[in-house]
Specification:
CATH class of the largest domain: Alpha Beta
Helix content: 25-40%
Structural class: alpha/beta
InterPro entries: AAA+_ATPase, ABC_transporter-like_ATP-bd, ABC_transporter-like_CS, ABC_transporter_ATP-binding, DrrA, P-loop_NTPase
CATH architecture of the largest domain: 3-Layer(aba) Sandwich
Keywords: Antibiotic resistance, ATP-binding, Cell membrane, Membrane, Nucleotide-binding, Translocase, Transport
Protein name: ATP-binding cassette domain-containing protein
GO molecular function, one term: ATP binding
Shape: globular
Radius of gyration: 22 Å
Pfam families: ABC_tran
Strand content: 25-35%
Length: about 300
């Protein structure tokens, strides 16, 4: 079997008397998209920062592309690219100038430093805006430029820490499309997000983290199936009735026929299936709602600075 491109065993990290990671285990296969979900303060950002060599773990081992993040941080940084929650681009430079600057900092050869930015500007639909200052870009355009910069060096692993925070639905969909293009080109993606639709759309596999540990992992479909079966939801004058179904047209037709024979007066009906929101609520005991960084996350950022 091929070794995982990311392997985490027994990862621990504390800030004073607050334990953020408590023996976290995680593996990501080469070419996979893994979505890391969890409530605020669960340890997602801390995990990302350790994987990216921005933080040292207190205990445990972490390897990325075969290199230990503590013993070989330079090798790890050469293999990955990190896109955080806010676009890290220079507003005074044009989009083209930003990418050319990053190409030089990434030590690309002279020819590739010229051709690679042009290719990425086209891929991310930024060619027409390439010579405009970034301060004139919309939020979605800045995020696409930031992601383009992350892909300049063709990283083996792309780490996306809540990449669509603050974007409107259309810009979010656009960004999903270009992330999909990167994956098809062979890049492995580790994604943290609080938008569960995003995880459902992009991820091959989902890992749910809470209190510093992975408490469940699997495909979105397998996690949903653990929550419960699909059901037909009937709204009547006296309340809501739920009838389990396999979701097929034939079974739904059978259920509605039985409702008609019973003479039940139904105001509306719908087929409901478990969602990742249901999975999240069941596993963590709280809804998945984007919010402000938890106290431990804020403390972590202060420590990094």
């Amino acid at each position: 079997m091929t070794a995982p491109i990311i392997a985490v065993q027994g990862l621990r990290k504390s800030y004073g008397d607050v334990t953020v990671l408590d023996g976290l285990d995680l593996e990501v296969a080469r070419g996979e998209v893994l979505a890391l979900l969890g409530p605020n303060g669960a340890g997602k950002t801390t995990t990302v920062r350790i994987l990216s060599t921005l933080l040292r773990p207190d205990a445990g081992t972490v390897t990325v592309a075969g290199y230990d993040v503590v013993r070989s941080p330079g090798r790890v940084r050469a293999a990955i690219s990190l896109t955080g929650q806010f676009a890290a681009v220079d507003e005074l430079l044009t989009g083209e100038e930003n990418l050319r600057l990053m190409a030089r900092l990434s030590h690309l050869g002279r020819t590739e430093a010229r051709t690679r930015p042009a290719a990425l500007l086209e891929l991310f639909d930024l060619t027409d805006a390439a010579r405009r200052p970034v301060k004139t870009y919309s939020g979605g355009m800045r995020r696409r430029l930031d992601l383009a910069a992350s892909l300049l060096s063709r990283p083996q692993v792309l780490v996306l820490d809540e990449p669509t925070t603050g974007l409107d639905p259309r810009s979010r969909n656009d960004l999903w499309a270009v992330i999909g293009d990167a994956v098809r080109a062979g890049t492995t993606v580790l994604l943290t997000t609080q938008y569960l639709e995003e995880a459902d759309q992009l991820a091959d596999r989902v890992a749910v983290i809470d209190h510093g540990r992975v408490i469940a992992s699997g495909t979105a479909a397998s996690l949903k199936s653990q929550v419960g079966a699909a059901h037909v939801e009937l709204t009547t004058a006296t309340g809501i009735e739920r009838i389990e179904t396999d979701g097929s047209v034939g079974d739904v037709h059978r259920i509605l026929g039985d409702v008609e024979r019973r003479g039940l007066l139904v105001d509306s009906w719908a087929v409901r299936t478990p969602t990742l929101d249901d999975v999240f609520l069941t596993l963590t005991g709280q809804p998945a709602e984007p919010g402000q960084p938890a106290t431990t996350e804020a403390r972590e950022l202060q420590e990094i600075r």
